[in-house]
Amino acid sequence: MVYSSGFHPFNGQVSKHFRMLNPDDPYLSSDETQTTISDVLTKEDVDTLKDDWLTDNVWCIQPFANVIAFWEEYLEREYLTQYKHAHIVLLRPSMSFMLIQTDNPLTLKEVLPNFDRISHIFLPLNDNRNPSIAEGGSHWSLLLVSVVDSVAFHYDSLSPSNKEEAVLATKKISELLGKPLRFMDLGESPQQENSSDCGVFVCVQMKHLLLKRLLAVDSSLKVSMSMGGKSIDARAGRKEMLKVIEKFRKEGERRRSRSSSPSKTHSKSPPRID
To answer: Along the 274 residues of the chain, how does pLDDT read in single tens digits?
Structure first.
C-alpha cells in the first residue's frame, strides 16, 4: 500500500533529526538504549522502517534485520525481565540465518544460547539462500518452536513463501535439541497486502505471541498458538516501533543533557581558618 508523501506519523519531528545524520551514522547510542544492538541501529535502519510506510521497497532486508534485532532486545528488556520464571529465547536474525546455513548445527553450540532449560524459541527467518550475499533475500517470516510441546509453528505473511526455510530451520533446531519436532505451517496466519510489510508482521506477531499467548497464560493451561482470525495493522505496527525508537533517543538526549549541565562542586578539604 502506497501512502501520500505528505504523511508522516510524527509531523516531521523524526525527519528533522534524520537530516543531521548520514545513512551509516548510529541513530541510537548505547547510552540511549543501554543495549548492545543500539550500536548498529543506524539512520538507514530507521529510514527503512519510516520510508516503507510510504513506498513498497522490497530491498530492505538487511536494514530490517537490525530493526528486528532491536525489537527483540526491546521485548526482552521491557517484558521478559519481569517474568523470572519464563525460559524463552528470542533468537536474533543473524543467528537464525547462520543456523539454516550451517551443515552441522551442533558446531554452533558455543555461539548460540543454552537451550537446556528453554521452553520456547522465536526465530525470525529470511529467504536468503546465498550466504555470500549479506543483503540477499526478499521476505521475512516467524518460526516459534515450543520445546515443551515438541512443535514448531510457522507464521508466514506471504504463505507459503518461506516454508522451505522454516522446515530447514525446524530440522536444525531439532538436531540441536536432540529431540524430534513436529512442523506446523499455519496457513491461516494474517497475510500482508503489499511487498514491504513482512518484517513488521514478524515484529507484531512476535510481541502478540509472547505477551498474549505465552506470558499471559498459566503454564499449566493449554493455549492456542494460531493467529487465524487476527488482523494485523502494519501501519500501526510501524508507528509503534518508531515511537519506541524515538523514546529511547529522547531519553538518551535528556540523560546526556543532565550529565553535561554545570554543577556546583564542593572541596572535600577542610576550610582555612581566618
So the answer is: 323 333 333 333 443 443 456 666 666 655 555 555 445 577 877 877 876 544 444 344 566 888 899 999 999 999 999 998 999 999 999 999 999 999 999 999 999 999 999 999 999 999 988 877 756 788 999 999 999 999 999 999 999 999 999 999 999 999 999 999 999 999 999 999 988 899 999 999 999 999 999 998 887 788 999 999 999 999 999 999 999 988 888 887 787 777 776 655 555 555 556 5
Q: Three-state DSSP class for 161?
A: coil
What SS3 state is found at 50? helix
Q: Report the interhelical angle of 61-78 vs 43-51 (nearest 10°).
A: 100
Q: 202 Cβ partners below 8 Å, 6+ apart?
A: 68, 124, 140, 141, 142, 155, 157
Cis peptide before 262 (omega within 30 of 0): no
Q: Which residue numbers are catalytic?
A: 139, 156, 198
Cα–Cα distances in angstroms (integers) from residue 100 to residues 44, 83, 164, 258, 268, in the given order: 26, 30, 11, 46, 60
Taking a C-beta distance cutoff of 8 angstroms, is the pair 72, 92 a contact?
Answer: yes
Phi and psi dihedrals of 125, rounded to 5? -115, 140
State the Cα–Cα distance between residues 8 and 271, nearest whole angstrom: 59
Q: Which residues face 122 on adjacent strands?
A: 90, 144
Distance CA 197, CA 214 (A): 24
Q: Which of 186, 184, 182 is nearest to 174 (CA)?
A: 182
Residue identified by cell 537464525 is 96
pTM, two decimals, is: 0.81
Copy the grid coordinates of residue 272.
Answer: 582555612
